Amino acid sequence: MQYPLALLCSGIFLFLTLPWTGATTGNATTSGSLELADVIVLASIQQLLSLFSISLDIKDFAALRDVFAPDAVLIGGGATPITGIEAIEEFYTTTFQNESFKTEHTSDTVFGYNLRETTKSSTSYAAVAYFGPAVFERGGFLFSNSSALFRERFNNEYQVNEHGALRITQQALTIL
User: Fold this and answer.
1) What is the pLDDT of residue 155?
2) Are 69 and 159 in contact (CB under 8 A)?
3) Mapped to the 3 state alphabet, what secondary structure does the chain carry?
């Protein structure tokens, strides 16, 4: 999969704005004091969230395997949690399969915390433009118009895999 320049630019923008974000690690405080390792982790989280958003928008659901851990859990995608990358990929494939269903996700605020050696956490927000069928339900949220603008909050837990890459192990989605 080739990633657009916007994906790279979002990481650069995050890097340039980090001193004011106030991430929390074992050593950093919420006053904006960050170590270089924290900056790299937060940029990695931003890149992963951008890949997640883009994979949904361009309907490349196989790319979700580069976002989620094999045993990941998705909370908020339906009445019960969705467990495992196969089930998560199937959920998004089914949800977004209609070609007339279009989304444009813009990941923005990312707050990283509990940045440990092998696990990390973040809360992030995405602005979403939805274009599609007039009546559609996703995670208990009913789209009653042919277009909608809304925000989503993601509380994510991450684990560093055997290759040193971050993968989401749990994602709790809230539509605001």
Assistant:
1) 96
2) yes
3) CCCCHHHHHHHHHHHHHHHHCCCCECCCCCCCCCCHHHHHHHHHHHHHHHHHHHHHHCCCHHHHHHCEEEEEEEECCCCCCEECHHHHHHHHHHHHCCCCCEEEEEEEEEEEECECCCEEEEEEEEEEEEECCCCEEECCEEECCCEEEEEEEEEEEEEECCCCCEEEEEEEEEEC
- Residue that wins the pLDDT comparison between 28 and 146: 146
pLDDT > 90 fraction of the chain, expressed in percent and rounded = 48
Spatial contact of 83 and 24, defined as CB atoms under 8 Å apart = no
Which whole number is the average pLDDT over 47-76?
Answer: 95
